[in-house]
Design brief:
With 233 residues, the protein is mainly alpha-helical. Helix content is 39%, strand content 8%. The chain has eight helices and three strands, in the order H-E-H-H-E-H-E-H-H-H-H. Helix 4 links the parallel strand 2 and strand 3. The two termini are 24 Å apart. Belongs to the creatininase superfamily. InterPro entries: Creatininase-like_sf, Creatininase/forma_Hydrolase.
Length: 233
């Protein structure tokens, strides 16, 4: 159940019998021809779809993350690592204070990964606290499904182009974009990154048939749900 669809009485009743919840992490950054909110849209919908049959509460996605390398693309917002770690830690602290103990973080943005030590510190500081950090798109079964559809898949390519991240009435290139040189990306500032990647797609087709995308989504939802249901002992 999405927290945005609940009142506090309902959350309190949930906590009488269960202490699980889900916290999605997103970002606001360029995704070529797709929404700037792709990562937030995907992480929150993934969490909500996976949690729906279980009734586990899903909090709103944190919409800003760590994306300094895209700051040359207007509309991108990036937090400092120290600020982001504090935000995530204080959200976790709030969840713990109100009774949640088992928290699944569904992360939609690879750049957010450096915050994982803050999650480990939170568990160390709070008795009985458990936190799982789940990069939904590169979990084993999901990534295998991506590779079976098309191994040339990356940021802002077809693998992030779902009906719910697509913008209406926007035309996309039909060709497959070659991979960018990732080694050259690692030592460039934001303007240098923009010069290397152009429109923002790191490589691959811009869109695949929706039938394939729904099949991929189903695999990812089931894999995410398994983490909610799994052994927390």
């Amino acid at each position: 159940m999405k927290i945005s669809d609940c009142n506090w009485f309902e959350v309190e009743r949930w906590l009488e019998t269960d202490d699980r919840c889900v916290l999605p992490l997103g970002s606001t950054e360029q995704h070529a021809y797709l929404s700037l909110s792709v990562d937030s849209i995907l992480s929150e919908k993934m969490a909500a779809d996976a949690a729906e049959p279980l009734g586990v509460p899903v909090f709103p996605a944190i919409p800003y993350g760590l994306t300094p390398y895209f700051m040359a693309f207007p509309g991108t917002v990036s937090l400092s690592l120290s600020t982001y770690a504090t935000v995530v830690r204080e959200v976790l602290d709030s969840l713990y204070a109100t009774g949640f103990r088992r928290i699944l973080i569904v992360n939609g943005h690879g750049g957010n990964s450096p915050v994982q030590p803050a999650c480990a510190e939170w568990m160390q500081a709070n008795e009985g606290a458990r936190c799982r950090f789940h990069d939904w798109w590169r979990a084993p079964k999901t990534w295998e499904a991506v590779q079976s559809i098309d191994p040339v898949a990356s940021h802002a390519s077809w693998m992030e182009n779902f009906p719910w991240t697509r913008l209406e009435d926007r035309q996309m290139p039909s060709e497959q974009k070659p991979y960018v040189d990732f080694d050259r990306l690692r030592d460039r500032n934001a303007q240098g990154v923009r010069e290397l990647i152009g429109d923002g797609n790191y490589g691959g087709f811009y869109q695949r048939p929706d039938e394939e995308m729904h099949q991929l989504w189903d695999v990812a939802v089931n894999e995410t749900r398994e983490l909610m249901e799994g052994d927390w002992l």
